[in-house]
Fold these 2 entries.
Entry 1:
Amino acid sequence: MRLRARLAVAVASLASLAACQTERVVTSDGRPMPPKPRAVAPAPYGIEPNQLMVLIAAKADDSDGNGYPDRVIVTNAALFRYPEHPGVALEANGAMIFTLWRLGDVHREGAEPIAEWRFDLPGDMADAPSRRSTSGTIYRFALSLLDAGGSDRMPPTVGDLRARYEPASGAPVIRSSDEVRAVHIGGQR
């Protein structure tokens, strides 16, 4: 008898669950879900950028496994045209140049950079993979001191990475902002 009663309760429970429906989906804090993302319309062909945005990983990694950090990853580099096409990352046709300075040396007269890297885009796409995002074309770079002809065997050093874009058209050079982009290189881990 007990078995029949339990079986009846189980069947009734399953039947009631089958009738349940989700009527409203919300986030964990009770707000409605955001709308589905939509692609940003691409910028018209031939638009010259006037802004450069660069994001980096602050800590260099050790590409050759010798214990000395030597490679800086630029996670995002994007070109924009403000105010006409805000938020639309443009395709590069020119040179993207990165220069690594010792912290504080960027504007010091006679200071020599630690290293410099040049990527001719779109030609050097193997070295600078791009990806389409909802905002347009975003570039990623791996900047190795070893590839630039330098050495990674140095005391722990804080560098300041700067970027500039030289359009193939001859339009004015675009520089990243003067904000310090601190990168920790050298020193044995």
Entry 2:
Amino acid sequence: MRLATVLYEDKMQAGGGSVFPPHDFLLAMVSDLTGLEIWALRRQIEPNPRNGVAKLIGDLSRTSLLAGDALLCVLVDRDRVAEHLRLPKLADEAAVIQAMKDRSDAPDKLTVHFLDPNLEGLMRSIADCAPGVSAPSTKDHNSRDLFLKHATFKLSAAARDCVKGKQASLGALVERLAGLCGRGEG
């Protein structure tokens, strides 16, 4: 049973099948809190990569369709979303969240969360929390996906918990999803 869909601004790598490493990393953090396996969480929390923040924002008007009976969670890079919403670049998170909810046809089904400042910042946070691991120096999907696959399946729960501390909004999303999935009941 689907409990939530996560709308990402990033795109899925061609040829990756249904695997989206940013989503699997999120699921690994939810798994750490619930005890549920990632494969089981994939049935409860679905990814929806949108290939750009403009497309993601445009889809907010279809929140009810995308969410269905579940929750729609947006995970977007903090560094550029305000500009796309025609807000000042340094608008606070509350203003950005409100602008996104204002575009939604079902704001009660929508939660908004940020990567600070972006996906590369998340990868730096992962590297900071995992001794001996360094973030990719190039910005390409192959490097990103390999790095996130490693972070999903090889890092300790303590390292992922450290990442939640460095990425507070992402941590709040993880906590919310773990609550939906029955925290500690797996």
